[in-house]
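Can anyone check this?
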Amino acid sequence: PWNIEALQEIEKETGHQVYSILQLRLHPAIIALKQKIESAPASKKHVVYLQYITSRGHWYHTSWKGDMSKSGGIATNIGVHFFDMLMWIFGPTLENVVSQHSSTRASGRLELEKATVNWMLSIDVNTLPEAVKAAGKRTFRTLSIDGSAFEFSDGFTELHTQSYANIIAGSGFPLSENLRAIELVHEIRNFDLKK
C-alpha cells in the first residue's frame, strides 16, 4: 500500500497521472451487476461464493510469478482483480479472515458492507472438480450471488485494450481506485493463520 502513496507523490511532483488496470470494472455483465446491487434495499446483505482455479505448471513457480516478493503471491497475482471487483460492487471490507494461504492456494471469508464473501483461489490442478478435469479443462471459475450463478466468462478479450484506450483518452482509473484492493491483498499475505 505504501507504494501507491509513493506513486501519488510522484504524480504531484511531475503533474502526470498514474492509472491502474481495473479491467473487470469495464465488463458489461459486472457493470449491470453493480447497478442491480445498488438498486437493492440498502439493508440487503448478499451471500457470495467465488472459486477461481487456474492450473499452472512448474514454470509458474520458477518464474517471477512464483516468487512472493515479486508477485505478491496468489492472492495478489490471481485474486486482486476479483477482490477489486467485489469491493467495487459490494462496498468496503469490514472483516477479512484468511483460512488458507500457500504458494498454490488461498481461501477465506470477507465481510463487505453489502455481502459475505467466501472465496478460494488455486493454481493447483488437483483442486479442479473431477468433471472439469475429465473434460480436459485446466480452468474453473464460479461466482454465485445469493445462490444464483453469475456468468461473466465471455467478454474478457478486449477489456485490457479498452483499459489502455481509456488511459490514452485520460479517463483511466486513478491510483486511489486501486488502494482498497492493494490493502486487502497485503492483509491476506500477512494474515496470521495461527489465530
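Reply from J.R.: I decoded it. Strands lie at 19-20, 46-54, 93-101, 105-112, 115-122, 139-145, 148-149, 173-174.
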